[in-house]
Amino acid sequence: MKKLIRGFGYAFKGIGYAMATQLNFRVHLVASLTAAVLGYALHVSTNEWIWIIFCMALVMSAELMNTAIEVLVDLVSPEYNKKAGHVKDVAAGAVLVTAIFALITGSIIFLPKIIALIHAA
Ligand SMILES: Nc1ncnc2c1ncn2[C@@H]1O[C@H](COP(=O)(O)OP(=O)(O)OP(=O)(O)O)[C@@H](O)[C@H]1O
User: How the protein sits in the membrane (predicted)?
Assistant: First the structure.
């Protein structure tokens, strides 16, 4: 049990590290908070909440993996190395794919509701 709790502690330490060092992670957090506030204000359905929460988890876990890869690359290849650059670029590309997916999903959920609100005003 103690080991399990310690494991959670290390995981939160990792999230704290990403929050403190990665501007992108903080941007994703703000975007997630904005989506949550919009979801509440626009009364999204249970299904839509599931998609919104899925997007938040997907983008943030991709960013955490990207941070881990960046730290590992800096550790094993502190000097310039073409392959080290590729590793970082591909990891960043993975984050971008998830962010685009989240943006499209958010647009599908929120845009019709925002447009309807504007028309009703
Ligand atoms: N050791 C290296 N060798 C070759 N190219 C590198 C190396 N480190 C970084 N690069 C290149 O520079 C880009 C930016 O690297 P950097 O580590 O600054 O990433 P970042 O996403 O800006 O990270 P941070 O969140 O620390 O600002 C990489 O995507 C890669 O193309």
Answer: Multi-pass membrane protein
**What is the DSSP code string of 38-103?**
HHHHTT--HHHHHHHHHHHHHHHHHHHHHHHHHHHHHHH--S--HHHHHHHHHHHHHHHHHHHHHH
The 10s digit of each residue's pLDDT in 53-91 is 999 999 999 999 999 999 999 999 999 999 999 999 999
Is residue 10 lining ligand 1, measured as CB closer than 6 Å?
no
- Residue ranges of the domains in the chain? 2-120
- Spacing, Cα 15 to ligand 1 middle (Å): 20
Question: Could you list the active site residues?
Answer: 63
Say yes or no to pLDDT of 114 above 90: yes
Ligand 1 pocket member 17 (CB < 6 A): no
CATH code matching the domain that covers 2-120, chosen among 1.10.472.10, 1.20.1250.20, 3.30.110.10, 1.10.287.3610: 1.10.287.3610
| Residue ID of nearest Cα to ligand 1 atom 5 | 85
